[in-house]
Amino acid sequence: MHPGLADRWNRHCDSIERALLASLPECGDCPPRLREAMEYSLMAGGKRLRPVLTLFACEACGGTAAEAIPAACALEMVHTYSLIHDDLPAMDDDDLRRGRPTNHKQFGEALAILAGDALLTRAFEIVAAGVRPADVAAACCADLAAAAGAAGMVGGQVADLEAEDLAPSGDQDVDGRHLVAIHRRKTGALIACAASLGGRVAGINEETRLSLAAFGRNVGLAFQIADDLLDRTGDRDRMGKGVGKDAALGKLTYPGLYGVEESRRKAAALVDAACSAVEPLGPAGEPLTALARFVLERDH
Amino acid sequence: MHPGLADRWNRHCDSIERALLASLPECGDCPPRLREAMEYSLMAGGKRLRPVLTLFACEACGGTAAEAIPAACALEMVHTYSLIHDDLPAMDDDDLRRGRPTNHKQFGEALAILAGDALLTRAFEIVAAGVRPADVAAACCADLAAAAGAAGMVGGQVADLEAEDLAPSGDQDVDGRHLVAIHRRKTGALIACAASLGGRVAGINEETRLSLAAFGRNVGLAFQIADDLLDRTGDRDRMGKGVGKDAALGKLTYPGLYGVEESRRKAAALVDAACSAVEPLGPAGEPLTALARFVLERDH
Fold it and tell me: Measured between alpha carbons, how far is B221 from B225 in angstroms, rounded to an integer?
């Protein structure tokens, strides 16, 4: 990572970690074990790509990182809930996440489902009560719900599960369109929303917001390709989860469909498209372009 | 049910059913099978207590039923998602709901979890995008999230699951407080929110909103006692689900703790308290008091 980007990223990560911890429900009406299960997954580390992107987008549009913190925390909560539910035995049935037992391995299935539900719900509470003015809060809630819901992330997860039951068609164009359709929703929609919410908080116009969303969609797809490549070529210890699992499941992936080299080329083209989308922001957009380029270099 | 109440309830139910159907995601980006699973549980009928209460509360405060429809639909979606997740094998493991197979029996566990997630998410989208003005929308989202989340409905479900592993203390006061603490969150918080949101949409002041919430909390607890009584004394065909299950599980219930007669008396006292809370609304509040009294008479 570029040293300037790394400094900025780490600084933002620290504020996000503190705000996430503070945003968990107080014990009192919340059963302690539920809070523990929520905290276990929410505070498990990770790159915090989505909330960092929200802060970068807000700053690139003239806002401050501080005012984007509630939206940033909400994005990370929605992302965390989706990981908890995706790991469940009925879904991807994963035992390991970020080098630790998955939530249901640690707390049991019932509590894992409910901790996910509570994180999703808390995300909307934080945006609705923490983003100001209120019309921006309402717009952010609507955006976040659209990105996370049936036509967004949840829809993408359903499409991904359905794809497991289908043999690839063998036609590269058909399978490629199918793959994009899955990941545009499963990963892309929430990353696009992370950028868009940062802009909304800064009070930008609709044209700039659409540019930020386009940036996020392209970064999101590039990120997914990088993820597929890491599953193919990555190192289990560094990843903190099983690798080679997609191939073992016969899952449709970018390297499976296009090979490693062509997948890398596609990811680079998406990053270029992302950078073009935020060109109108000028030098203020540089942290965003640096973040996009970093997606290509990530090794875990 | 009082004929005047029944007419009004049925008329509102019709609008709610139409609005719920229209509020499901369009096919397009939403996988058809996901929409089907959402619709299966959302359109399974039932009394629609929560959304009808929202409409009644809005009208009692000088608003129109039409303007409360988005909030009403959101309440029913949150309630439906909670039933889908509560029925899962990892939770209550129920096969039957309203006389039909539960969502996971019909669609499989993965899709049932995701359909619940999508309904919860959609509820916030509908409030954020459908309630106006925007500051009321943001306040409604925050209220709904607080009622549905870790310190509300989800917290109550966790407490209820934890209580299954505990033998009752044998001290009626201790067990009684524990029971109230569970149901205040598990059932009461969302019913209180249904009343409160109806008032918010009508633009009431905070004092009246708190009265409506107190009304809803008391109705919610009375409703839960009625539910426990029906599980004890109800008729399986009419209920559309297994009865006697709580007792079989050794679960703490009102009739188990206080006996049938004393439980009926407690429910009646709660309904009286609910009616007192909305007395300041005058004759405009009559549908609310009729609804509260109906809770005592329900037989399914």
Answer: 6
